[in-house]
TrEMBL record, chain A:
Pfam families: DUF2642 (PF10842). This is DUF2642 domain-containing protein. It comes from the Bacteria.
TrEMBL record, chain B:
It comes from the Bacteria. The lineage of its organism: Bacteria, Bacillati, Bacillota, Bacilli, Bacillales. This is DUF2642 domain-containing protein. It comes from Oceanobacillus sojae.
Length: 131, 70
């Protein structure tokens, strides 16, 4: 907590209070069945996720929040790290295997074992593996 | 070496023999015209000298293969 700014500390306190309130209202619900709140509401604190599926980018310093440095965030970044290597690129139609020659703005160039050049649109790539 | 954009690179290769793959189809022919949204391939493989024109939406293209000449 020592490295947190005042705003971050307040935010965490607010979140703590919210979680406690939710737990209390859950308890209250078990007594008072007239409440419109769901009885089955569960709060999963151990795996506590602040962002709830959205990237809030809270920048909690040493706690992370910005992802591990060096970890690619887009398929294009993955491809850029594989230039001149053997790759398998899968699109809805087929999988293309060969040497990744270049990664451009919206497509990549692969040379297949047969010598054929293939231009693959990055938008259509489902997954990439380093074969 | 290669153009930055997919359509620009295709435009540089007009006249080449191509195999164009969409999600469900593979179209073989000669790359004839390329615009920002469309690629025109002349299908010469169907025989009968028909030279069928196939307009392909660039957005639908998975990949374009340029086979080495046999």
């Amino acid at each position: 907590m020592a490295n947190l700014t005042d705003r971050q500390r307040k935010l965490l306190n607010l979140l703590n209070e919210m979680s406690q309130n939710l737990v209390t209202s859950n308890n209250a619900n078990s007594v008072n069945n007239d409440s419109t709140l769901s009885h089955n509401f569960s709060l999963n604190l151990p795996g506590f996720s602040l962002d709830g599926g959205q990237n809030l980018n809270l920048s909690l310093g040493k706690w992370g929040g910005g992802g591990t440095p060096g970890t690619p965030t887009t398929i294009r970044e993955v491809l850029l790290s594989l230039v001149n290597e053997q790759v398998q690129v899968t699109t809805p139609f087929d999988t293309i295997s060969g040497t990744l020659l270049a990664v451009q703005d919206d497509y990549i160039v692969i040379i297949e074992a047969s010598g054929s050049q293939v231009l693959v649109r990055i938008e259509k790539i489902e997954f990439v593996s380093n074969s | 070496m290669f153009a930055a954009k997919f359509t620009a690179e295709l435009a540089n290769r007009i006249g080449s023999r191509v195999e164009v793959a969409t999600d469900n189809n593979l179209i073989e022919g000669i790359l004839s015209t390329v615009t920002a949204d469309l690629a025109l391939v002349i299908d010469v493989s169907s025989g009968y000298g028909g030279n069928v024109k196939i307009y392909i939406s660039v957005d639908a293209i998975n990949f374009v293969r340029f086979p080495v000449a046999a």
